[in-house]
């Protein structure tokens, strides 16, 4: 059975999520729909991309990922169907594809939408899950919006990155990759600078530090995360989205 994931900034207090699911099920009653999140901050493309990009690879290959809501619409009524890393994405032409994965396809299908994307796109997702070919749902296009993801900068002496997401616990996830840190920190001392604080150790788990103490770990997605055990790191450290984080290595 083909899985469908659904992510949006619709929230849970209105009927929008149920309405989209109803339109998928009207086309394909056997569809299996899994919610990733509907608590994306309104209009926050970065939050949306981080949420979907962090989890889509955990689903089986061939999963269909529907992204909807104002965060992804960006005033565009054009919707795309694209295969990325052996997964199918149905998304607005807002640049979100390039923020979810660096493996941008050379082409996509511009979905055939006559009047209302919110009504027609879920039905097209149902058809795709039911076995319709992507080409039957629209026209091939090589022109769609893309962004360049900001990456950390690594030299022999330092890694410069920034906060790309603050989770609901106030933990600060950065774009500093574990692979870069492991190479540069091998048999070298280092200092991690963030706000007015600094750390000299990366823990394997948050529980290695006492409640109220600062921690630095790597996430399952192998990105550096820092915060305060049982505290809101964003508030207590005075850091937020885009705050700089720097690691300096001793010679």
From TrEMBL:
<feature type="domain" description="S-adenosyl-l-methionine hydroxide adenosyltransferase N-terminal">
    <location>
        <begin position="4"/>
        <end position="113"/>
    </location>
</feature>
<keyword id="KW-0949">S-adenosyl-L-methionine</keyword>
<dbReference type="InterPro" id="IPR046470">
    <property type="entry name" value="SAM_HAT_C"/>
</dbReference>
<comment type="similarity">
    <text>Belongs to the SAM hydrolase / SAM-dependent halogenase family.</text>
</comment>
<dbReference type="Pfam" id="PF01887">
    <property type="entry name" value="SAM_HAT_N"/>
</dbReference>
<dbReference type="InterPro" id="IPR023227">
    <property type="entry name" value="SAM_OH_AdoTrfase_C_sf"/>
</dbReference>
<protein>
    <recommendedName>
        <fullName>S-adenosyl-l-methionine hydroxide adenosyltransferase</fullName>
    </recommendedName>
</protein>
<feature type="domain" description="S-adenosyl-l-methionine hydroxide adenosyltransferase C-terminal">
    <location>
        <begin position="161"/>
        <end position="246"/>
    </location>
</feature>
<dbReference type="InterPro" id="IPR046469">
    <property type="entry name" value="SAM_HAT_N"/>
</dbReference>
<dbReference type="InterPro" id="IPR023228">
    <property type="entry name" value="SAM_OH_AdoTrfase_N_sf"/>
</dbReference>
<dbReference type="InterPro" id="IPR002747">
    <property type="entry name" value="SAM_OH_AdoTrfase"/>
</dbReference>
<dbReference type="Pfam" id="PF20257">
    <property type="entry name" value="SAM_HAT_C"/>
</dbReference>
């Amino acid at each position: 059975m083909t899985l469908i994931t659904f992510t949006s900034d619709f929230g849970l207090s209105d009927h929008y999520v149920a309405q989209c699911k109803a339109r998928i099920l009207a086309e394909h009653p056997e569809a299996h729909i899994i919610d990733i999140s509907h608590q994306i901050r309104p209009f926050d493309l970065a939050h949306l991309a981080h949420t979907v990009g962090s989890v889509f690879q955990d689903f089986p290959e061939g999963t269909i990922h529907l992204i909807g809501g104002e965060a992804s619409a960006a005033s565009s009524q054009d919707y795309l169907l694209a295969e990325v890393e052996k997964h199918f994405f149905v998304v607005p032409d807002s640049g979100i594809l390039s923020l979810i994965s660096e493996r941008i396809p050379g082409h996509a299908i511009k979905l055939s939408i006559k009047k209302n994307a919110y009504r027609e796109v879920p039905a097209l997702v149902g058809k795709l899950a039911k076995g319709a070919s992507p080409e039957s749902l629209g026209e091939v296009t090589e022109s769609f919006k893309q962004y360049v993801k900001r990456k950390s900068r690594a030299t022999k002496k330092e890694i410069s990155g920034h906060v790309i997401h603050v989770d609901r616990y106030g933990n600060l996830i950065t774009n500093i990759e574990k692979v870069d840190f492991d190479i540069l920190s091998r048999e070298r001392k280092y200092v991690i600078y963030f706000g007015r604080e600094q750390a000299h150790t990366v823990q394997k788990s948050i529980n290695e530090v006492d409640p109220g103490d600062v921690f630095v770990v790597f996430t399952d997605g192998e990105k550096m995360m820092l915060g305060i055990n049982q505290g809101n790191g964003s508030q207590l450290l005075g850091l937020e989205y885009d705050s700089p984080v720097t690691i300096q290595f001793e010679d």
